[in-house]
Write a structure and sequence with these properties.
single chain, 228 residues, alpha+beta, Immunoglobulin-like, 3 domains, four-stranded antiparallel β-sheet, 1 helix, 14 strands, rod-shaped
């Protein structure tokens, strides 16, 4: 320490050069007057901290539509975390679990906006923001025809519960109309095929009858008239 430290009595400054982690400790200053009497000592607790260099945000959707967000920092000793959403401090009402002063939080299903994580210690303060959106879940609350009450979060794309009855009627009516149209087209096609073959059969019989030879009423004629 002697080779790296300097004390200046005129202004009471104590300087340590080439500081390292092992220099963190309790330092005591003792002063004496001209008669050698010691005055009240002064104590200083020196803490060595590395600054935070960068912050990384990572988010993932959970099974019920919640969003888990973690905030990690590179370097930095004794980091402290804080969160904001759209410029305002994150509230307990927006959190499903976790403390807004920890590096991992879980947001409720309807929370979205610009989420910012700030990491600080005594020598630095670094922030990182990320635009987040909901995980595609919606909250349904209805009573089924059998009296069952449903109140829960469901993934909107796969939702088959609490469907509007009018929508179901429209869907059923459309399905019935399509089925009727298909039946009419099929019957019309079958009927047309039957008529076509009946017409072909009748024409064939007529052609067969007309090929038989006809003998004229006057036998004196020496030829026969054949109509083809």
């Amino acid at each position: 320490m002697k080779d790296r430290s300097v004390f200046t009595p005129s202004n009471g400054t104590f300087r340590i050069n080439n500081l390292n982690r092992t220099d963190g400790a309790e330092y005591i200053l003792e002063t004496f007057d001209s008669n050698g009497r010691k005055s009240e000592p002064r104590t200083l607790q020196l803490s060595i901290q590395a600054p935070v260099s960068s912050v990384l945000l990572d988010s993932e959707c959970l099974s019920q539509g919640e969003m888990k967000v973690s905030c990690s920092s590179e370097g930095g000793d004794s980091p402290q975390y804080s969160w904001t959403l759209d410029g305002h401090t994150l509230t307990d009402a927006q959190l499903l679990s976790g403390n807004k002063e920890t590096n991992i939080i879980t947001l409720k299903q309807d929370v979205s906006g610009l989420l910012v994580c700030s990491v600080r210690n005594h020598v630095s303060n670094v922030s990182k923001g990320e635009k987040i959106s909901t995980c595609g879940f919606i909250f349904i609350n209805c009573t089924l025809p059998d009296g069952t009450n449903i109140s829960q979060w469901v993934f909107s794309a796969n939702n088959t519960l609490c469907i509007d009855p009018t929508t179901m009627i429209v869907i059923t009516a459309n399905s019935l109309l399509v089925s009727v149209l298909r039946a009419v087209v099929s019957l019309s096609l079958l009927g047309g095929i039957a008529i076509y073959f009946a017409w072909k059969k009748k024409k064939y019989k007529k052609a067969e009858t007309s090929t038989r030879p006809r003998i004229k009423d006057h036998p004196e004629n020496s030829f026969e008239m054949v109509e083809l």
